[in-house]
């Protein structure tokens, strides 16, 4: 998947939505809402393990984990999306996500409440995101899944360090 937003570029929302067509998504639950990420950005799914704290990091960075010799930061998506704080338990998972080549292959763990399923877009029409919140900057589109609406997370934008400040 190409980098959808470059700092100097303005990408039309319709162009971002067009790039999402035909993809499969890993769906996950976060604070009772359904989200999805392009399955190609998922490196692995890990069970919850407390990360090593990282001094002076933003509140949404819980620390780092060792992933086969690579140090990977772990982001609490509930804190990042400004929802209520979660308790970490056996069902809590960490999605290891990799940004696209254009975004320099950044890797990060993202804590979510639970992984749901792999969703094939099928005949579903991806709609542009609506609303105005701090989460909308990380949402590329919306997709109807059964009786729910799944927000499609733009992994490249989510992992951009410029958004950490």
UniProtKB/TrEMBL annotation:
Coiled coil: none annotated. The lineage of its organism: Bacteria, Pseudomonadati, Pseudomonadota, Gammaproteobacteria, Vibrionales. Residues 22-164 form the CheW-like domain. Keywords: Cytoplasm. The keyword Cytoplasm applies. InterPro entries: CheW, CheW-like_dom_sf, CheW-lke_dom. PROSITE patterns: CHEW. It is found in: Cytoplasm. SUPFAM superfamilies: CheW-like. The keyword Magnesium does not apply. It holds the Pfam family CheW. This is Chemotaxis protein CheW.
């Amino acid at each position: 998947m190409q980098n959808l937003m470059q700092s100097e570029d303005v990408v039309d929302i319709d162009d971002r939505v067009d790039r999402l067509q035909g993809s499969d998504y890993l769906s996950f639950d976060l604070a009772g809402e359904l989200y999805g990420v392009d399955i190609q950005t998922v490196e692995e799914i890990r069970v919850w393990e407390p990360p090593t704290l990282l001094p002076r990091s933003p509140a949404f960075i819980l620390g780092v984990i060792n992933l086969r010799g690579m140090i990977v930061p772990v982001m609490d998506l509930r804190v990042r999306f400004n929802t209520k704080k979660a308790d970490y338990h056996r069902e809590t998972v960490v999605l290891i996500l990799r940004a696209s080549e254009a975004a320099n292959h950044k890797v990060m763990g993202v804590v979510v409440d639970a992984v749901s399923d792999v969703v094939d877009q099928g005949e579903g029409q991806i709609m542009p995101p609506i609303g105005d919140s701090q989460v909308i900057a990380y949402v590329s589109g919306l997709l109807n899944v059964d009786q729910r609406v799944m927000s499609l997370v733009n992994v490249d934008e989510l992992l951009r360090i410029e958004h950490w400040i």
